[in-house]
């Protein structure tokens, strides 16, 4: 395909966890090419191969901050990431803010949170076992587990967490019209305003063990300002519930629809950390592609010259299915060798919440394997309902028995 060629990308919702056919064809046939996205102005390059994606997200000549200005090409009517948030900054502002955020998700921080998360899951499973089968694993376990663990970590009062859940859900709906865009923007703004009110009302103590406490202490030191606090914690909270809830629901769907995988983990539980990495690699976690970057200079990627002021999108999902990086990439293999999966990103914008995700996945899957080894779907897989109109894919329910 020539550099001048351009293909229109219409975001679809493939059934269950089927891979987006447009993205899969892109990876195999035209790994770097121009696309026209449904919303915004202009066209963008789409980069799909593992090595090329790593280069783009690691090269400071591809700017997140400059790409978020104006009506840039995107797959939703509204901009999911608000300007000035952690995901939309470049160094040095991004480096300064990450220096505050990274310790909040350190191994030591996760070790402190782990017994709280385990106790919460144990209580949820006691309620599940008491009520007996069938049960909705998403509604009764996965959703409240991820919501309350993130609430404990961030410092959201228990009584406010249902509001947080609803705002998070609305903020990540895939808007395609003005009403949907307004709803998404309103939800993000409501959550940001909530956190501003929370820290100003003396309900958060600077320097306590929560994310809010640490960020407020940073405000008092002059390391960040109050707007950065509100926007940062809003982004962290949305992702800490919504993305993890969907990821873990997807993992359980995969394991319960591939009985040999569940049986493999039952017989070899020591493989669980590797299994989590492989599930992260294999799972197509979202519909469409993420936000673009803007080239600040001419850059050659994979034999193609991307010119200054051109937009560049990439797909971590296609990179994770690149046969050059992962032979037989469409197969799930808990003993797979290869480069690190890119579900958490790469480079300066690597997801700060990755340790939280791994810790929660280890607790959730490990506990279910021990306590409910005969867990299985209560009805055929094709009857599982999937959330419509969202950015991140996931079952709406998983009705199980044991």
Set down the secondary structure blueprint.
Blueprint: E1 6-8, H1 21-29, E2 32-36, E3 44-47, H2 50-58, E4 62-63, H3 64-67, H4 93-101, H5 107-131, E5 135-136, H6 137-154, H7 161-171, H8 178-200, H9 211-221, H10 226-257, H11 259-267, H12 272-282, E6 293-295, E7 299-301, E8 304-306, E9 311-314, H13 316-319, H14 354-371, E10 376-377, E11 399-401
Parallel strand pairs: 1-2, 3-9
Antiparallel strand pairs: 2-3, 4-6, 5-11, 6-9, 7-8, 10-11
Helix pairs in contact: 5-6, 5-14, 6-10, 7-8, 7-10, 8-10, 10-11, 10-14
Describe the structure.
- With 402 residues, the protein is of the alpha+beta class.
- It has one domain (6-401): Cytochrome p450 (Orthogonal Bundle), CATH 1.10.630.
- 48% of the residues lie in helices and 8% in strands.
- It has 14 helices and 11 strands.
- It has a 6-stranded mixed sheet. It has a 3-stranded antiparallel sheet with strand order 5-11-10.
- Helix 5 (107-131) packs parallel to helix 14 and helix 7 packs across helix 10.
- The longest helix has 32 residues, at 226-257.
- The chain is globular and about 60 Å long.
- The chain starts with 5 loop residues before the first strand and ends with a strand.
- The model has no long low-confidence stretch (mean pLDDT 94).
């Amino acid at each position: 395909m020539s550099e001048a060629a351009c293909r229109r990308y219409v975001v679809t919702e493939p059934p269950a966890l089927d891979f987006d056919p447009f993205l899969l064809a892109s990876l195999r046939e035209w790994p770097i090419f121009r696309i026209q996205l449904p919303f915004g102005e202009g066209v963008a390059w789409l980069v799909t191969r593992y090595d090329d994606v790593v280069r783009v997200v690691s090269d400071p000549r591809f700017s997140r901050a400059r790409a978020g200005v104006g009506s840039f090409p995107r797959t939703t009517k509204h901009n999911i990431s608000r300007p000035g948030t952690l995901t939309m900054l470049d160094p040095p502002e991004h480096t300064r803010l990450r220096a505050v955020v990274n310790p909040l998700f350190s191994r030591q921080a996760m070790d402190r949170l782990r017994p709280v998360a385990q106790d919460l899951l144990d209580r949820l499973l006691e309620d599940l076992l008491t009520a007996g089968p069938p049960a909705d694993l998403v509604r009764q376990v996965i959703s409240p587990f991820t919501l309350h663990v993130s609430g404990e970590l961030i410092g959201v009062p228990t009584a406010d967490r249902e509001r947080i859940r609803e705002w998070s859900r609305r903020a990540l709906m895939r808007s395609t019209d003005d009403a949907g865009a307004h709803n998404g923007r309103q939800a993000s703004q409501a959550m940001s305003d909530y956190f501003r009110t929370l820290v100003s009302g003396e309900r958060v103590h600077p320097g306590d063990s929560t994310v809010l406490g640490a960020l407020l202490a940073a405000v008092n030191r002059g390391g960040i300002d109050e707007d950065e606090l509100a926007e940062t914690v809003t982004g962290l909270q949305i992702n800490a519930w919504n993305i993890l809830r969907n990821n873990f629901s997807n993992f359980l769907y995969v394991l319960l629809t591939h009985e040999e995988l569940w049986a493999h983990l039952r017989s070899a539980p020591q493989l669980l950390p590797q299994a989590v990495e492989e599930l992260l690699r294999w799972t197509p976690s979202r519909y469409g592609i993420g936000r673009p970057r803007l080239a600040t200079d001419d850059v050659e990627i994979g034999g193609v010259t991307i010119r200054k002021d051109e937009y560049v999108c990439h797909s971590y999902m296609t990179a994770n299915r690149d046969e050059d990086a992962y032979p037989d990439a469409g197969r799930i293999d808990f003993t797979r060798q290869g480069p690190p999966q890119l579900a958490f990103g790469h480079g300066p914008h690597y997801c700060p919440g990755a340790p939280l995700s791994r810790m929660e996945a280890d607790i959730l899957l490990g506990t279910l394997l021990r306590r409910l080894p005969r867990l299985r779907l209560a009805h055929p897989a094709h009857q599982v309902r999937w959330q419509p109109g969202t950015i991140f894919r996931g079952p709406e329910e998983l009705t199980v028995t044991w």
